[in-house]
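Subject: Sanity check before I submit

Could someone independently write out the structure tokens for this chain? I want to compare against mine line by line before I put it in a report. The sequence has 99 residues.
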Amino acid sequence: MNILLWALQIVVAFLYISGGAYKVFKVVIEVVGGVVVVVPAKVTGVPMLTALAAAVLAIESLALAAAYARKSMKLVAANPFGWCVAMGVLAALVAYGRY
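---
Independent answer below. Compare away.
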């Protein structure tokens, strides 16, 4: 289970860091959250930091997905709705597993 959670954390971190770097001057929460998700809790001294960061990212992604859903719910690669839902679910799984 721990190996699966680390793999999910790395995927979530990559997705949020790449997404946040794209719009670094608009939304910084994704870059910071992506880094904090993979920083081991023992390095920071705050064991719940990984779960908290993943939960914040999940909430942010699912809220964004709800905003995109108001415009269109077409399941095509160009629609950000599907990507936001997938990233939010992955972040929620990491938050739940690390909690």
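---
OP: Matches mine. For the report I'm noting this point. The chain has one domain: 2-98.
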